[in-house]
Amino acid sequence: xxxxxxxxxxxxxxxxxxxxxxxxxxxxxxxxxxxxxxxxxxxxxxxxxxxxxxxxxxxxxxxxxxxxxxxxxxxxxxxxxxxxxxxxxxxxxxxxxxxxxxxxxxxxxxxxxxxxxxxxxxxxxxxxxxxxxxxxxxxxxxxxxxxxxxxxxxxxxxxxxxxxxxxxxxxxxxxxxxxxxxxxxxxxxxxxxxxxxxxxxxxxxxxxxxxxxxxxxxxxxxxxxxxxxxxxxxxxxxxxxxxxxxxxxxxxxxxxxxxxxxxxxxxxxxxxxxxxxxxxxxxxxxxxxxxxxxxxxxxxxxxxx
Length: 305
Prior knowledge:
Helices cover 34% and strands 24% of the residues. The chain is built from nine helices and 13 strands. The strands form three sheets. It has a five-stranded mixed sheet with strand order 2-1-3-10-4, sandwiched between helices. A five-stranded mixed sheet has the order 7-6-8-5-9, with helices on both faces. Strands 11-12-13 form a three-stranded antiparallel sheet. Helix 4 (129-138) links the parallel strand 6 (123-125) and strand 7 (143-145).
């Protein structure tokens, strides 16, 4: 029986809150287990003066953690699942997906504006092509400005007056307990990133004992929805930072997947949805991706590349 478990995590405030959440859940189930958290700096944490789309997105916030996992320096990795590439590194696997926090995006501004009331030509900060494209699709008058850094850093830049508003994931704000002047953007208006709000627990493929432990962290409905969303992303050939939005929801034994691909200037939006048996999430996701590609998403994504 394993006596000490080492969890790998990014060093940001949000990442550490998430890693400690997993630590606490495991300690409750395995009180005799010693658990440590090892922080690892990723490429995305080191390069802060370049837009995300300019430095590639293959494991930007996960690669170094995966390397430590493969090297045996850590036993288990905690990722924001939205940051984990859909093609898992050889020798690793996702052992569990935690119950999802709110998957929506929020608009944060000192005045508490929503997307409709935000003043003309406002400066809106985001590092996400998905958010940039959807913002311009809804409000082509807005000035979209690049915004990098950890969550607290981005909020401070807003408070310093560098932006009129910024767009963030509601999940991170909730986990950190921030009280902000904000407006929650409805899913009908703004599609989230695949697996937004969920944590992915990654282990080595040969980690039988650890996989058994990780089972208590898995939330089946969230896992199914995230698998469906990641299947759409895989089928579209898009990375974590492509202008692709997708979310899935369960209704009894049925799963419904909504997805969209957006041109960077917001001028073109290709959206579609699909539903079917929840046992067939992967094929449903791939079928939806194929439909989107045939309806014009292929041209949008090729133009970006």
